[in-house]
Amino acid sequence: MDHNNILAVVLAGGKSKRFGRDKSQVKLGNKILIDYILDEIIDFYKDILVVTNEPIKFSNSNKISLTSDFQKGLGPLGGVLSAMKWIKDNKKNYKWISTFPIDTPFFKKKHLNKFYKEVDLNKSNLFFMKSKNTRHNIFGLWSLELYEKLEFALNKGDRKVELWANKMGVKTIDFDHENNKDPFFNINTEEDLKTAKILLENDKL
Prior knowledge:
Number of domains: 1
CATH topology: Spore Coat Polysaccharide Biosynthesis Protein SpsA, Chain A
Structural class: alpha/beta
Oligomer: single chain
Helix content: 25-40%
Radius of gyration: 16 Å
CATH superfamily: Spore Coat Polysaccharide Biosynthesis Protein SpsA, Chain A
Largest sheet: 7 strands, mixed
Strand order of the largest sheet: 5-4-1-6-8-7-9
C-alpha cells in the first residue's frame, strides 16, 4: 500500500462529556494523551491532520496541520467529512484517509503495520479494525470516493458511524490481544485513566 496516498487524521473534535474535560490534553505518564497516537503514526505519513474545535497542545511537527469541523455536532462522521473537505480545499492528492482517536495510548505502530498489510483495497472503500468481536470504528481507512455519500448521509441526519459503515459495506481486520494487553483500550472516564496509569507502570516493570 502506498502511504503517500493516505492522509492521517486524528479526530480530536469530541466533547469528552463522560470525562468532563478535554481528554486530548490529559497527562498520562510523561506526556499528554494526543501525543501517544501522534508519536506512533508520525513516521508513516507525509501529512497528519488534527480535527479539533478548540485550541490544543501536541508534539510540534511541520507534518501536522489543524482544521476544525465544518459543522459542529455531527460526531466522528462529521470529522471524517471535514478531513475530506480539507483535502479538496487544499488541492491535496490523497485518495484515502486513515483515522485515529486521541484516547488509546497503547496502540502501537506495529498494529498499524498489520492493518495495512492485511487490507485489500479492491474489496471495499472502507476498513475498520476489530478485536474480540468489537469493531473499532475510529480506527478506519476511508476512500475519498465515499465523499458524496457521506455528505448526503450527514445532510439527511445520519450520525451513527456503525450504521452508515454497514450500509457502505465496511470490511474489518481482526487483531488479537497480545499477552492480554488491549491495544484499543480507550480512556473515557477518570477511572479509565487510573487503569491506564497502572497498565503504563506495569509496562515499565
